[in-house]
Amino acid sequence: MKKKAIIFDRDGTLIVDKIYLNDPNAIEYLPGVFEALRDFRDQGFIFCVATNQSGVPRGLVDVKNLNQIHEVIRQDFAKEGVDILSFHSAPYMTDSNHFMRKPNPGMLLEAIQWHNIDPAQSWMFGDRLTDVIAGHRAGMRSVLLRNTDEYKKIGVTTPQESIPELICDQVIDSCSKIKHLS
Ligand SMILES: [Mg+2]
User: Fold this and answer.
1) What's the pTM?
2) What is the pLDDT of residues 135-162, one digit of tens each?
3) Which of 1, 58, 100, 125 is the most interior residue, by most CB within 10 Å?
4) 5, 45 contact by CB (below 8 A)
5) Annotated active-site residue in 11, 39, 127, 131
6) Which of 32, 42, 11 is nearest to 174 (CA)?
7) By C-alpha distance, which of 139, 172, 126 is closest to 17?
8) Residue 103: is the preceding peptide bond cis (ω within 30°)?
9) Is residue 11 annotated as a catalytic residue, yes or no?
10) Which domains, and CATH codes, for the chain?
């Protein structure tokens, strides 16, 4: 049977966006993320992370450190009773339009394939419109967080694929809403 999943953006969604984070010791979790994922776990969701990492081609993020950062995040969530099944990263420049780089859906489709996910029952969470678009391009619904000013860009002329099904301050604020929308 296909599974329902939540795919999370990393920076500005699960952890504080430090801009080209390259140090596992500098990881700082956003408020309520562990509690939120336990709630979603109990709702039957599985979890993945999909992160654009233009810091790698810029030479500001070392791939070894990137992998270590993801391992630390995975372990920290595991200690809190939450399994993050996979981390997908797109080490391409901002202007690349690579299929794996959000807003394109490559990383999400990879997660969907690896874990037998049903996109129609699944959600993409992020703090940018590119996350929202990537979710929709992968056939999922999208949640936009108000951690940046991106939500202010949404207006009457905004293309449909950029409009999230839900807008919340933090991941934790979405738990009961997702439950009712699922
Ligand atoms: Mg982000």
Assistant:
1) 0.97
2) 999 999 999 999 888 999 999 899 999 9
3) 125
4) yes
5) 11
6) 32
7) 126
8) yes
9) yes
10) 5-181 (3.40.50.1000)
